[in-house]
Amino acid sequence: MAFQVSNIMLFILMFLLPLSATAQPYRNVTLGSALIANNANSTWLSPSGEFAFGFQQIIPGGYLLAIWFNKIPETTIVWSANRDNLVQEGSRVQLFADGRFELSDPRGQRIWAATLSRVGVTYGAMLDTGNFVLANRNSVVLWQSFDEPTDTLLPTQTLNRGVKLVSSFSKTNYSKGRFIFILQNDGNLVSYTRNFPMDNVIFAYWSTQTVGTGFQVIFNQSGYIFLVAQNGSLLNYVSPNAASSSQFYQRAILEYDGVLRHYVYPKSANSSGGIAMAWSSMDFIPSNICMSIRQSSGGGACGFNSFCSIGIDQMPNCDCPVGYSVVDPNDRMSGCKPNFAAQNCDKEARETDHFSFNDMPNTDWPDSDYTYFQQVREDWCRQVCLDDCFCAVAIFRDGNCWKKKYPLSNGRVDSGVGGKALIKIRNTNVTANFSVSKKSNRSTLIIIGSVLLGSSTFLNLLLLSSLLLYAFYFNKLKPNRHQPYQVLPGLNIRRFGFKELQEATNGFKEELGRGSCSTVYKGIVKNDNIEKVVAVKKLHKMATEGEQEFKAEVSSISRTNHKNLVQLLGYCDEGQNQLLVYEFMSNGSLSNFLFQSSRPNWYKRLQIAFATARGLCYLHEECNNQIIHCDIKPQNILLDESFTAKISDFGIAKLLKPDQSRTTTGIRGTKGYVAPEWFRNLPVTSKVDVYSFGILFLELICCRRNYEPDVEVETEMILADFAYDCYKEGTMHLLVANDEEALNDKQFDKFVMIAIWCIQEDPALRPTMKRVMQLMEGSVEVPIPPDPASFITSI
């Protein structure tokens, strides 16, 4: 309900309305001026230099005509002309002598032009407000970028009726995305999901409910963002928290995840007031987009078959259930696809014994159900879904059972959902049943055989078949002869013969390490008469059967390329002998380095922590296919000759047999580093690595093992519990007694808080590794962590 602003408040609001462009200082862009993409001087600056207009290279050879904050190291674009049509190097934007303002490609074809309602442009100007204007000789603005926003509003900018913001497709793709924020002609301010790639809308997930009254959204110089009626009365605050424009850069942006956020950035270290020199969010709407979107068509907040959860930074996370993978690794909102063959619907091969369920508490995909049952038991709900080949997921809550079919939409995980999702997946040790096709094939063979037996050519065919069978078995009996320098197509990775690696390791003599699934030996291989020391990992039990499957897994691992990952140099696949050849890490494992008699340098420990975090961030965020390590621990962090930390054994989990575990619990991982969801039938996502990293980070900070049974005080035995108790009681100095370097580091407390966030029992509360990196680097403030053990589950 609107309320009338007092005369004084109304005067203040009107005083702080956007000033006219004619009142701002500017540097004229004269008629005939032009900018060329990839030209060293391809920008027009505002008088203070705080904003720039020109070309930004978005991808190699692709340029965006844009406006951006020019004094911030992080490129922050606030407006663009050609967001859906990047131009090539050599393209130009020009203010012609007749007043036309156009962007053209290198061939002179027009890509974009400013829409002028009147003629008479005599100059252009980039203003200190972030507004680019075209004006006549009387300084009357004839066109301005503020009237055609893309996804961002700036202080002194208004959003009038009929004008909208459209989110970007992703963080790095500035083309139009999936969400719209618009002040409708009826006065209602609304956030919609967009029927991508069309411009029509699907579902309103936030609104001010001001139909008939909303007139203008104002972003004033004091940093308030609010909706007013035509008479000036305040209807609704979009962002009620303000910041001084003299001390902070500000922007409000409809981000690619559909959330409108108000950001501030300190203009100088002295004015930051303790805020990190980075963009910080002051307000955002809606508060929980995962629970806000429930549309009848489309994939919801995160895409089909995926689920949305809110992290510690209030950012929505899009994840796939166990047994599913993201459709497009470069688009986290593209949805998820099952990694298994669908259930056979033939009555003779329903495959009910080939499927089981993965339980996800507080999870639902609303509006995807096709059948609903009341007053039933959970085991009955499970069985009725298992017996139904169309059922992909069953939801059981308070004695009610919903059966869901593909594609699943509006997925969300939230404590307010209740109940549990029963996700049907194919067991890993079975394959799809093709008995029907096999039966058909057998029938065909019987018919062909009958015809052949009655034919005069049968004896000739029988003789030819015998010769082919003999040749086939002869080749199978011959030893494999692999080319010594054969590589996988497109990869710089060598294929070794088993005998060659046997000789390189002197008969597998010098053992470097041993695990439940492999043994590592030191070896020396030759390439062009150059000897290279390597580590040869001999795998004991493999999940894959056959050379092609093993090669596919090796190919996936070898495509990784990061300075904090141990490099895979080659492989061997001969019969039962499957080996991997890695670069040799001369300083052994972090376990040997960290838990020696003398305490390693504090700053060296931090370098190792940062290196490990960077490696994990690469595996989770930057690989073509996301890799979850599942066994982060000091023994799997190796150190090279300069003590640079590198993660080893990444991707090997996919090669192991399903019954191979590192502990007696039947789960993958190592006791003490294993995330709690392994024990609770929760989905295993990249957050399991975040948990393990949190334990590892505490070990690096405190320079002690995660479990010390011989301590004098019993409460100090488990490092994670001890660390949180010290944090809660304000006695964190006890964690690093006598470690002056650590105690004197002002960031010590922050690092402990980050580790506590990582070891939250609720995986939804843990940050992603990308966010962990931002927290560690100081680009994002570290919130106060809750008790890690506060997660309660009914399982």
UniProtKB/TrEMBL annotation:
SMART domains: B_lectin (SM00108), S_TKc (SM00220). The keyword Transmembrane applies. Residues 506-780 form the Protein kinase domain. Keywords: ATP-binding, Disulfide bond, EGF-like domain, Glycoprotein, Kinase, Lectin, Membrane, Nucleotide-binding, Receptor, Serine/threonine-protein kinase, Signal, Transferase, Transmembrane, Transmembrane helix. GO terms for cellular component: membrane. GO terms for molecular function: ATP binding; carbohydrate binding; protein serine/threonine kinase activity. The keyword Iron does not apply. Residues 1-23 form the signal peptide. It is a single-pass type I membrane protein. InterPro entries: Bulb-type_lectin_dom, Bulb-type_lectin_dom_sf, G-type_lectin_kinases/EP1-like, Kinase-like_dom_sf, Prot_kinase_dom, Ser/Thr_kinase_AS, SRK-like_kinase. SUPFAM superfamilies: alpha-D-mannose-specific plant lectins, Protein kinase-like (PK-like). It catalyses: L-seryl-[protein] + ATP = O-phospho-L-seryl-[protein] + ADP + H(+); L-threonyl-[protein] + ATP = O-phospho-L-threonyl-[protein] + ADP + H(+). Residues 20-147 form the Bulb-type lectin domain. It is found in: Membrane. Its EC number is 2.7.11.1. Belongs to the protein kinase superfamily. Ser/Thr protein kinase family. This is Receptor-like serine/threonine-protein kinase. It comes from Forsythia ovata.
